[in-house]
Amino acid sequence: MVLLVVAYYLLPMDSAFTATTVLALVGGITAVVVLLSWQIYRITLSPRPGLKAMETMAITVPLFVLLFAAACFLMEHSSSGSFSEPLSRTDALYFSMTVFSTVGFGDVTARSEPARVLTTGQITLNLLLLGVAARLLANAVKRGRQRLDRPARPDGSDGPPRTP
Q1: Where are the domains of the chain?
Q2: Which of 58, 87, 93, 160 has the fewest CB atoms within 10 Å, i.e. the most exposed one?
Q3: pLDDT in tens, 21-48
Q4: Per-residue pLDDT reduced to its tens digit, 66-103
């Protein structure tokens, strides 16, 4: 998580918000979904599924928030006035985090239509991440714990005994 934040502050972000930026954001979100799917599978095999699920969230959520923070930062720097105030990297991260947490203090707001579309997209994906992903993680932990509680078969393999 710390490495992701450090990367966010160190990566050069001096390009304009273009169709390429949108494709990079979509690619980043796709990468988050793939990472989350792979981690859900790994949770079911882990000797500590609950801990693995917390690790998954500790990587997935910051990556997701940082993707949107980078998009907000680039949008504001490409089209000044997209937000109610100029956004530094910290401001963009702050805005993205308040949107993710559904707190929405109102001190920074999306003003332009593209900024509002970006924010609406983040809100929609936040709900999916918080609802669907949380449910999938909980089920993966449950399956992982059930796998650990199951006695091994006489042949040494894991799983239910096979019938002839």
Answers
A1: 18-148
A2: 160
A3: 889 899 999 999 999 999 999 999 999 9
A4: 999 999 999 998 899 999 999 999 999 999 999 999 88
CA distances from 93 to 36, 65, 69 (A): 22, 7, 5
Structurally, at CATH architecture level, domain 18-148 sits in Orthogonal Bundle (1.10)
Query: Of 21, 59, 19, 12, whose CA–CA distance to 38 is shortest?
Result: 59
List, in order, residues 6 or more apart from 140 with CB less than 8 Å away. Answer: 40, 41, 43, 44, 49, 53
Q: Is the dihedral of CA 69, 70, 71, 72 positive or negative?
A: positive
pTM for this one? 0.82
Structure tokens at 66: 């940082």
Residues written for the chain: 164
